[in-house]
Amino acid sequence: MLRLTNLIIAVAFAAALAAQPQTQSQSSTDISSLHQKAKTELTAGHKASARSYYMMAYEDYVGKGDMKSAVQCGVKATELYYKENAYKEAFDLLRNIDQQIRAQKISGSDKAALSYQTTKERMNMYVRLRKGASALDQLNIMDAEARTSGDEALKNDLLYNKAIYYYTFGQNEKGNAVFKEMAAKLTAQKEYDKVEEVYKTLIANGRRSNNAGMVAQSYSSYIAWKDSTNAMKAADAQAALKKQIAENEASIAEKDSSLSARMALIMGLSTLAAVLATALVACILVLMRYILLSRRQKKTIDAINENNAQKAQFISNISAQMAPAISKLDTGKPEVKALKDFTEHIQTLSDLEGQAGKKVEVEDTPIPSFCEGLMDEIRNKVKGGVTLHVNAPKMTAPLNREYVSHILSHLLQNAAEYTPEGGTIWLEYKKRGAHSHQFLVSNTGDVIPEEQRAEVFKPFRAIQDLTKGDGLGLPICRQMAILMNGNLDIDPQFSKGTRFALDLHS
After folding, report:
1. Entry pTM
2. 326 phi and psi, to 5 degrees?
């Protein structure tokens, strides 16, 4: 029973790790017809035919120099070999793949990342053959390759495979230690959703295997973890709000002679912060009690969604209650105007989050005149010598003009601010498919560092001076894009400056 429990835990973490971004993922271009045929045959249960197509796709990709796709297909063919006990053919194919990898003129880190995949398949075969020493040798090689590649996703995958090895060969204490390391790592990175998905997968697997003990243990562990992380979230939110209040208090005290009025405002914010913290704790306690009483996973998820909606509505109410007090202050002062804008942005973000799942109305819009009108708004705001380009084909497209105009105007305003003299700003429209299209806003100048690209779309990611911006512009734009069944992101391939891509699907 213990070994079954451990294996279910490992499978659950495999699902969570699979949801993480992979640096060695399939190319953004369409896969080959041979590759697609292999996947179709495998889905239909025709394993021998699927293996043949995977082999042909492997050789085709090697000929084209696409080693990432080649290794993917070669490894899949290997798996189909050894699952039919054709171990000799599987080992021979892996040796051929390794020879092709070594022959490539690519960096050492890229070779290590590709070789990691073949080494992992060897380990899997030795595990199936119950050859512990040989499997351990491959696991040590995987460790070295993951470190050489510098790929965090491979390091996470390595932890999973270590757990599989330890549980398979009866080293349960080591397997449990790896499990704790993975959970601690994701929690430390504040990847709460991924850890929560692991626990939910554990519960589902326990139900499918009719393992009542596993279900009960998983619920108990999940509740304890959820209580701990919610307490951390509440503490972080309260600490951030208190810090913001303290900074606002100092700024208002310096700039406004009406100290009593400002202090009243700060006290009001402090009271609201305390009420918010209390409400969050109360909601968490209610949610935990509900989970304890519920035996159905769907009801648990519905309760979590309802709790999030209540928190969003509560934050929206706070913003609305602050608005009358702020409106009585002198908005001519930068600090007061910044605080007023901040509350309005919070209200907008909360309203948008509350519209999730609702249909967004669209209307046919002439693309050239629409784009030219947006670009005209910044012509008098750019620095000297900056060139403006619009590339919009003569066609119409179904758009929600309010949301698209807001997003593109915000991006163009940012481009006007950060493009240096003599630079260039582009606004482009591209038709990507029968029901998908894209707007691109690009500008020359500094490139946003890779490690900051995901952070710019997260609200309240850092405490900052509100007079220099509250950082909610891009999170609001992304939420609008999501409501339109689309997404807003930074193009990582653009190297001349910064390019934002707004993808929409009708």
Report:
1. 0.40
2. -70, -35
